[in-house]
Amino acid sequence: MDDFMKYESELNNFVEQQPVAVMCLYNLEMVDGGILVDLMKTHSKLILGGMLLQNPHSLSPDEFLATSV
Amino acid sequence: MSTSVSAASVDISLRDQLSNLQALLVLSMRMTDSEDEGQILKLAATAVPSLARCRLFGACLEDGGWRVTSDAGSNAQAQLDVDAQLAVMSTAGGALGILQEPWGWAYPLRSVGGHFGFLAVGADAEPDAGDQFLLRVLAQQIGVALASALHHAHQREQAADLRTINTALADTVAALERSTAIHDRLTRTAVASEGQEGIAKALHELTGFAVAVEDRHGNLRAWAGPDQPEPYPKAATAQREAMLQKALDGAGPIRHEGRLLTVAQPREDVVGVLAVVDPDGVATEQTKVALEHGATVLAMELARLWGLAEAELRLRRDLTEELLSGTDEESAIARAEALGYDLERRHRVVVVEVSGKPRDHHAFFQAVRRAAQDCGVGKLLAGRGQSVVVLSDTDRPWEMFRSAVEQELRGGPCRVGVGSPCDRVVDIPRSHHEAQLALRLQTRSGGPDQATAFDDLGVYRLLAGVEDLATIEKFVRDWLDDLLDYDAGKEASDLVKTLGVYLEHGGNYDATAQDLSVHRSTLKYRLQRIREISGHDLASPDTQFNLQLAVRARATMLALRGVSP
User: Fold this and answer.
1) How much is the ipTM here?
2) I want to staple B120 with a disulfide (CB 3.0 to 4.6 A). Which of B57, B131, B508, B550 is the partner?
3) Total-model pTM
4) Which of B18, B30, B49 is nearest residue A36 as measured by Cβ atoms?
């Protein structure tokens, strides 16, 4: 799961250099509390049940990895 | 440079903390959305390592023990250890010693309703103030979510209860509506006095089944619907009574030989049967309800009919009483006419009396009434002491009538006395007197129970007609005086009776001895004593005739004295 979160974070770096908008889809029934917390930390916007939650303080991949150590 | 690195590090840490707070909000939303206690605790437990550098040991709820346990929390010894500490811990929580964890803490789980458990967390070292703050808030959010889930569960239970109650209520209302419809239909029948035919018709219309109304004996009183059996089948008396008893013992309708039936019994002696013909056994609960309502209306109808019959019977009884006592002919005829009865015909008075132990007089009266009705003997009856008097307008074989009464009494023995015919109302007391006399002479003769008609009494009838009893008495004394004196002076002596039986048997020794239940030699000795005491020659035909007449005259005299005209 840690590798997956690393992938998520790295993806952010890649997307920033491309003219695309990416939406990551997660099945809430299969996402536990830990993943939910990490997703919130690594994404600037999160749509939960139709509600938009913004996190202007989201961490870049490097920053996230640094806090996870 | 180092200042710049340190500032960047503080910035990341601050943003991490702010992101955690935002994540806590997301978690809280997910937990509050969930109505499942297990899912709430699992969400929270898995979030602990992401929110702080800690490990979850488990969540311990006061009403159910450990719910979410990590590998470490599954250790039974560690659990017992923590349990012991939590048992004495303040509801504000506090430091916790957890096996193999350098640092441990118990965070209270609470809601507005109060404290309900702890979240036990362990770590390699004491987390900083920010992490501890996040853990405390997480525990608080768990409390709120669990309380909300509990509340929802209660609401769901209440809603389920309400649905169950509503369904039951709807069923009850539907049953009541059906019951009311049935009741209304049958009540209309009762109010309109449509009788037993109306009840059968209403029940047939309500249920769709063929319906029969029967009397106690199984005779058909009304039928509604198709396929009426012809002739109508009738069970044997014993089987019928057993079926009635079974139906009366049951709490509701019973099933019997392809029919669903119930018994209406407004009085002990008034019984009716209401039956629905259902050979395939497909009658529903609604049919049973209709049958029970129908039985109630039938009971009312039977009670009404019984009341009418009883009133008519009472009027007839009163008229009979007056006729027996002697009444004004004109008014008696008028009253009889009002009852639909023709008094201006030839009548006889018939007296019925039970032999042996007296019976319940009402039952006896009813037995005589039914037998008189079945045999066509007469419709005017009255109770007199232990006997029942029937004013008969026909001339039946009286022994047959007597047997019918005995049958109605289920074998109880009875005697019947019949007066001579009378063509006028004023002669009825005389016929009554004769019937009583016939009964009394029958009793005195000591013979078997039978029907005795005054007309068949022969010389007794002639003797009973003598107005001056003193003449008869003198004749009796002339011929039997010595024997009567001897019997009176000596206990256990009954020479007059012996003489009477001997003469009735025409001087036959064997028949006389058998009738008296004595030995032939005893009889010979008694006859010798009779000859000696009375001085009569028993071989003389003239003496024999006078002695027999005297014995019969004495019996008549005694019977006449016992019957007041």
Assistant:
1) 0.86
2) B57
3) 0.47
4) B30
